[in-house]
Write a structure and sequence with these properties.
alpha+beta, Immunoglobulin-like, conserved putative lor/sdh protein from methanococcus maripaludis s2 fold, Elongation Factor Tu (Ef-tu), domain 3, seven-stranded antiparallel β-sheet, elongated
């Protein structure tokens, strides 16, 4: 009976017969044709010898994940050839290698039909029609038809699937997307507001660190005692004396207030006198409690105001400070501010800046603003003094790759209503100022194509001419194709067990 298949995007390429003399001694195993389909994040690629009536034809089937570009392990794969009403099928459970299956089928009916595969993955089956095929009764006719339909690609570079599976390799379909003007600049990394707090001395004295492990970069938790400031050995402004005086004053005013409370009912103490003693008591209590809370006999106890790390220390252990003098900075740097400056000619574009690409030249990593959970915070309405540049401020989440005080390259992306064809920067190759990409002809055959480039946002580049949306380009591993082209020693069938 006739089998129904799910239609997929199909590419067909036939490779002509490889023979020196045009005689009748053709061998159809020297001629192959390929079919390619894309469905559900899978790439299906089949290489077949021409189908001859009552003779064995070989099919090599590859299945690749478009997410990882690695081979896919299937529960089973079945090939189905439908010619007229005749259904020929064969199922393979054990692959030659992961993602690589070999079939040998012997057509029993001559004519035009369809070749498809049933792929079983995780208990579910997918039926895919790969394309139209013809079963010939004459070998010479099959070879001649193959030659007529063959794609001429003298400049193509073969790169076998099994080799691409073992490499850092990827393919991307050319896409058209919104791509506005790019403003390239440099930004200074600064701490976000509220992410840095200065710890200051509240009294005169000598600084004593809480332990020998207080140093810049040390992690601290909120409420942790990190140092103390003591003036107990000083003749003047001795904190211990101040605490004792405050305690004595508090206790005396408390007794006076309690005595006044007991005498006011007998009219011995007036209401006015009671209020005066109450006010003195409460003032003394506030002073005493504040001293006890923040100080002890050894001096002021300084605690970490936030969870974070010690960014900078201004005073050495044992150094003298005065009240109000900064001792250290505690920071958490969960978020960072990028302060960029752009030329005045871009002033009209700044309201339309909606995203950015940040490039850290130290780690050689690139991030989009969205990857860093960032946002464009503001842009200047006037040039900054002295350098006539306009500031633009971005906020990003610190992933640990950024150091406050350093610089990063920033590509500001301006919102646009026009579309452009773009490719990843990793797809572009350059030779003496000429840019080119490798376009996929089949999953194992690639052609060098010269392109004219436009603007770049640091991750993707606009292609002004040279590509169409239907094409697929090598987006990762283009250098491998270039090396294969340079050596010219790769066999398109290497890695296949024919």
């Amino acid at each position: 009976m006739k089998k129904q298949f799910f239609l997929a995007t199909v590419i067909v390429l036939l490779t002509s017969c490889n023979h020196a003399n045009h005689d009748d001694n053709h061998h159809h195993d020297e001629t192959t044709f390929t079919l390619t389909a894309y469905i559900d994040s899978l790439e299906l690629f089949a290489e077949c010898t021409p189908f001859l009536l009552a003779e064995s034809s070989e099919i090599i089937f590859h299945i690749t994940s478009l997410n990882t570009f690695k081979p896919v392990h299937c529960d089973s794969v079945a090939v189905q050839l439908v010619v007229e009403k005749d259904l020929l099928t064969q199922t393979v459970v054990q692959p030659m290698a992961t993602g690589l299956y070999k079939f040998n089928i012997q057509p029993t009916v001559e004519g035009t039909g369809k070749l498809g595969f049933v792929v079983a993955l995780n208990g579910r089956k997918k039926c895919i029609t790969m394309g139209d095929v013809t079963v010939f009764s004459d070998e010479l006719d099959a070879c001649q038809k193959a030659e007529k339909r063959a794609v001429k690609c003298a400049t193509c570079v073969p790169f076998p699937k099994q080799q691409s599976w073992q490499s850092d390799f990827a393919i991307e379909q050319v896409r058209r997307e919104s791509f506005g003007q790019i403003i390239k600049t440099v930004a200074l990394i600064e701490p976000a507001q509220g992410d840095e707090i200065v710890v200051t001395a509240k009294t005169n004295g000598v600084v004593t660190f809480a332990s020998n492990s207080v140093f810049e970069g040390k992690t601290v938790v909120v409420g942790q005692v990190i140092c103390s400031v003591s003036g107990k050995d000083f003749a003047d402004n001795n904190l211990s004396v101040r605490i004792t005086e405050a305690k004595n004053n508090y206790e005396m005013t408390k007794l006076n207030y309690e005595r006044a409370q007991s005498l006011v009912a007998d009219k011995v103490v007036s209401e006015k006198e009671l209020l005066v003693t109450k006010n003195a008591y409460e003032n003394a209590k506030i002073v005493y409690n504040q001293l006890v809370e923040n100080f002890d006999a050894d001096g002021q106890r300084l605690k970490a105001p936030i969870d974070g790390f010690i960014k900078q220390i201004f005073v050495k252990n044992g150094g003298y400070v005065e009240a109000g003098q900064p001792i250290m900075i505690v920071a958490k740097d969960n978020y960072l501010m990028l302060r960029a400056e752009v030329r005045q000619k871009y002033a009209s574009l700044l309201p339309n800046v909606h995203s950015a690409v940040i490039f850290n030249s130290v780690t050689q990593k690139k991030y989009t603003l969205e990857e860093l959970q960032g946002a464009v915070m503001s842009y200047g309405k006037a040039a900054t003094g002295g350098n006539f540049m306009i500031p633009v401020t971005l906020k990003i989440k610190n992933k640990g790759d950024f150091v406050v005080g350093s610089f990063v390259d920033v590509f500001l992306k301006v919102r646009s209503h026009t579309d452009a064809i773009t490719v990843p920067n990793s797809a572009l190759m350059e030779d003496q100022g000429i840019y080119y990409v490798f376009v996929q002809v089949t999953p194992e055959l690639f052609d060098k194509q010269v392109v004219r480039v436009g603007a770049t946002d640091g991750l993707r580049t606009e292609i002004v001419s040279g590509l169409t949306e239907e094409q697929r380009v090598v987006s990762k591993g283009a250098i491998l194709i270039k090396l294969a082209q340079a050596t010219g020693k790769l066999d398109a069938h290497s890695g296949h067990a024919h």
